[in-house]
Design brief:
mainly beta; Immunoglobulin-like; 6 strands
């Protein structure tokens, strides 16, 4: 896990074309299907939309998520889907 100068978990997005996305600073996955992935990050709620989206890797300790598929957009939302997503339900 990476930290900024104030000791907070950092948030990073890295795209390889439109086919791969790596997100760090992920706190929870709210919901996902083949067209939308909604996740809580240290920077707010991030919504990834596209086609044939798949979560290729999820590291709970590192807060890192890998997405494969055709990525059409990345959007941060101020208000939204609320807490209590998939990870919170699985690992409480």
């Amino acid at each position: 896990m990476t930290y900024d100068t104030q000791g907070h978990t950092s948030h990073r997005l890295e795209m390889d074309g439109r086919e791969r996305l790596t997100v760090s600073g992920v706190e929870d996955v709210e919901r996902f299907d083949e067209e939308t992935i909604v996740m809580s990050t240290v920077a707010g709620t991030l919504v990834v939309t596209g086609e044939e989206l798949h979560i290729g890797k999820l590291s709970l300790e590192g807060g890192e998520l890998h997405v494969d598929g055709r990525i059409d957009s990345l959007t941060y939302e101020d208000q939204g889907y609320g807490r209590g997503g998939l990870l919170r339900r699985l690992f409480g």
